[in-house]
Amino acid sequence: MKINKLSIAVVFLSGSMFYAQETKQDTIIKEKKIDGVVIQGSSNKKTETAVLGEQKKAVIQKQAVSAEEISRKGISNVEQGLTKVTGITTVEGRGLFVRGLEERYNYLLINGLGSPSNNPFQKIIALKQFPTDVVGKLNIYKTFNSNLYGDFAGATFDIETLTIDKPFTKVEFSVGVNTLSTFRNNFKIAEGADGMNGYLGLNSKDRRLPDEIRNSRPSNYRFTASESTNSFKDSWNVDNVKSMPNTSIGFTTAQKVKMGSGNLGVLFSLNQGSKFEYKNGDNNQFRSLGKESFIDNMNFLNRKQYTYETESSVLLGLGYKNKGTNVNLNAIYLQNTNNIIEDNFGYKDGQVRNKDSGFFRTNQLDVSRFLDLQLTASQKIADRHQVKAGASYVMNNYQQPDRKIIEANRIDPVTNQMLPDGYVQMRYGGNNLIRQYLDVDSRFYGSAFAEYQLSLGEKGDKKDYPIQIAVGYNGFSDFRKTSYRFIFGRTSGSSNQAHVVNIDSPQDVFNASINDGSLFYQEGSDTSQFYSSFYQIINGGYANINLKPNDSWDILLGARYENDMTLIRYSKQSDDNKQNLEKNKDFFLPSLSIKKAINSKNNLRFSFSKTVTRPILIETMPITYINPDNVNIVGNPEIKNSENYNFDLKWEYFPTNKEMFAVNLFAKRIDNAIERSLVASGNATGSTITFFNAKKADLFGVELEGIFSLSRISESLHNFTLGANATIMYSDVERSADQLKMEEPEWFKTTGETLRKRGLQGAAPYTINADLKYELKNRNNLAHTFSLVYNVSGSKIYATGGAGTDNYYEKPFSQIDFVYQGQLSKNWNVKLGVQNILDSKYKILLGDKNYLPLNIEEGNNTLVNYYRGITFNFTVGYTF
User: Fold this and answer.
1) What is the pLDDT of residues 482-492, one digit of tens each?
2) Helix, strand, coil shares of the chain as percentages rounded to 5?
3) Residue of 104, 290, 282, 289 whose CA lies nearest to 845
């Protein structure tokens, strides 16, 4: 029998690249009889069906969000995409929670390489900065395997950069309006921040530490009148503008070049966006006054926050593929700026007399920059051997340059009446004028991996070898330096005269006071604590063996050895010399994953592993981060890594290649669990957010997930698909001695009372994600998709309380989004999204199980609350 072979051109993208095989037609032109056709090709790994098939086949519990799903749901960044996965939710400004666990329990890989955070307040990069235009697939590993880093309890996220089927060039423009923030008059923004420099994030150079002290140790340097006027390039003034619609523009192109017997792929992507956001709500604090007393307000404030945010990203990649050889070179740059003006009205530190007249303003710029250079390669040797390796070098920096704080009062010093709106009276000296400079600079970050794979035995019916062995190494080195300095406005006048200023334009008054000698600037940094250094080196070696005794069993047994060398160099208050805090620990981390294919549609899975959890940088940084509302963050350099024992038992059912249902039972024991606490400050004013290890925490839960076509109900609903997932969890904490000392009221020592049981800080009792999709194709086979998406998570502990107060609870926040995705023609596509349709209020409340009665302002037990408004986004794209 003669067979004509048709090799279909297939375009590949490995990492961020794509490659094309040359189309060859083996047809014998003169042959008149065709006995058969063999088509050789590759499935599109971007589709939801392909991703579901990969999930079904994998031995470990791996979920993914495909490029197709990203597009269908109008997902614009990686953070949004990950919230569509079972048990994953996003929490306001604090990253992603997996199975109710705080972000500190997650880890991030980019194309398999370790990635540091570019923000000391977060464990991983703020993934909303990572645009989905360059993402092919988001992999989520919720069970551990030895080739992953041991820093794992919630999940490891692996971003695989763009995968495509053919060369293309795409331009996309988006515009959005928010019911609360857009077209708002008198939207406050730092002077000049809304210009081109602010749009590109270049305005930070005007807010750098002045030349006079930039490269020297703090010495209480006093700036002359000329220096006080000219050395600070950034003004205390703010502009009042009309907030415009949010916009973003993206350009992505992917091309290929034939190179010898292989192909060279080139990818370039550029994205730029800006966003205005306004929040208005409570900003309170509470304190316990001791036995036979009550709990009252420490702070009672109304906060108005104006944020102008810009995001920039650039990705450039080169990739070469030739038979079994793959080589990829990527450069990824992310930049984020947040220009924040925050006004607080009311009193703090229990100064009730200022309830109607107190005021302070923060003028803040947050800047993060992240450059990741990656080189990865793999080589197949015959059919049984494969080697792969990769390395990355990352430069990242986080700054809060010239964070300006003004504290004032709205009472006229002459008439003793309230001043007109926009005017305050203030006196120089004390903490009334402060400039803060925080810089967390990466001196060096390097990550690498290498792995050898060997296949043994003979292939079975599913074309898999029965024994696959892998041995490898991965690790990273992370060196950072923290600089934290303060400059105060001081007075040299004997009377400390009150000055009435327009709070939006006080610079001229300040300049006049500098010129007449009644105001000058002087550095007030703590000479012992103005900088610290953090060094961490993680080296991990691993081996795993994948056994497939027959087509129904898949067993993956792994072992990982990981050495953690951490050194923190810092000074305690008033110490002259730095001290070294060394932490050197070895971890042996076993893992076992078993998959039993009951039949072609049912899988049963079991997994066990031991892992560790390392703290977020701010949780271990030896600094006191000062906030103007006197709620300061104090790192704990003595904090320990958590050690986690993870168990999962899962049943999966795949009725069709587009449907699935799964039930997963899980349990975790977390020794030395890290928790956030909010307690009264040790200096009798303000509050402190700090971090302690619990003795242990136990968690038990169940995850439910389903994707079904509604044609099962009625054939008239064949265009509808329902996807839903939910996590229900119980947690219990055994407090450590440090926590008991902090949480127990003083009188417990004499009364014998004990603290109530509580769950793990940050653990939500439930999370729900759901989406209803309607998809149709017109007579030109162009697809139109409508999706309704819902997310919520249950009430969870934001921070543990102390000295008689209950814990602080982050309340459920329900969100419904609507997304339309339409292909208007071969080239044109549009998206319409409506986010936060319910416009729920975000709330953190003091719990109602306090150990003392409440005597709080207006009966308001709110710590923080605000609305976000409803956002409408319209995106148009052209592909050619």
Assistant:
1) 999 999 999 97
2) 10, 55, 35
3) 282
Please, how many CA atoms are within 13 Å of residue 505, restricted to the half-sphere of its CB? 4
The closest alpha carbon to 662, from 592, 602, 593, belongs to 602
Are the C-beta atoms of 709 and 658 separated by less than 8 Å? yes
Q: Please report where in the chains the tokens 């923060």 appear, as a residue.
A: 362
d(C-alpha 699, C-alpha 667), whole Å: 5
Instruction: Identify the H or E element spanning 67.
Output: helix 67-72
CB 391 within 8 A of CB 447: yes
Q: 617 by DSSP, 3-state: which?
A: helix
The C-alpha atoms of residue 773 and residue 659 are separated, in whole angstroms, by: 13
Question: Ramachandran region of residue 839, left (φ > 0), alpha (ψ -120 to 50) or beta?
Answer: left
Using an 8 Å Cβ cutoff, are 805 and 828 in contact? no
Nearest residue to 289 (alpha-carbon basis) of 804, 848, 850, 859: 804
Interval 650-674: pLDDT, tens: 999 999 888 889 999 999 999 999 9
Chain-centre distance for alpha carbon 594: 31
Q: What is the Cα 173 distance to its own chain's centre? A: 24
d(C-alpha 546, C-alpha 772), whole Å: 38
The token pair at 772 is: 């209803």
Listed residue (657, 549, 822, 646) closest to 98, CA to CA: 646
- Say how far apart CA 607 and CA 554 lie, in whole Å: 12
Contact (Cβ atoms closer than 8 angstroms) between residue 729 and residue 764: yes
Contacts of 60 (CB under 8 A, 6+ apart): 141, 143, 145, 556, 593, 607
For residue 427, give every residue at least 6 positions away whose Cβ sits within 8 Å of its Cβ, in sequence order, or none: 491, 496, 497, 498, 499
Distance CA 223, CA 228 (A): 6
Tell me which DSSP letter residue 88 carries: E
Quote the CA–CA distance of 109 and 62 in Å, as a whole number: 14
Q: Which residues in 617-757 belong to E strands, given as ranges?
A: 624-625, 631-634, 642-653, 660-671, 674-680, 687-693, 696-709, 720-734
Residue 813 CB: number of other CB atoms within 10 A? 19
- The answer to whether the beta carbons of residues 877 and 829 sit under 8 Å apart is yes
**Residue 347's beta-bridge partner residues?**
300
Confidence of residue 92 (pLDDT cuts 50, 70, 90): low
DSSP 68: H
- Six-digit token string for 716: 């008239």
Looking at 259-263, 618-622, 708-712, 753-757, which range is the least confident one?
Answer: 259-263
- Out of 7-21, 373-387, 486-500, 738-752, the most confident range is 373-387
Bridge-based pairing state of the strands 106-110 and 155-161: parallel
Q: From CA 208, how far away is CA 211, in angstroms rounded? A: 8
Strand residues in 457-552 grouped as ranges (E):
467-490, 499-502, 520-523, 531-547
Rg (CA), the chain: 29
pLDDT for the residue numbered 23: 37
Residues 6+ apart with CB under 8 A from 599: none
Q: What is the number of residues in the chain?
A: 880
Q: What average pLDDT does the segment 4-12 reach?
A: 30
Are 877 and 174 a contacting pair, CB within 8 Å?
Answer: no
Closest by Cα among 275, 44, 274, 254 to 133: 254
534: which 2 tokens? 């953090």
* Sole residue written with tokens 């329900």: 814
Dist. CA 114–CA 393, nearest whole Å: 10
Rounded to an integer, what distance in angstroms lies between the CA atom of residue 176 and that of residue 196?
Answer: 20
Structure tokens at 368: 């993060």
Q: Parallel, antiparallel, or unpaired: how do β-strands 520-523 and 467-490 relate?
A: antiparallel
Contact 232, 210 (CB under 8 A): yes
pTM: 0.88
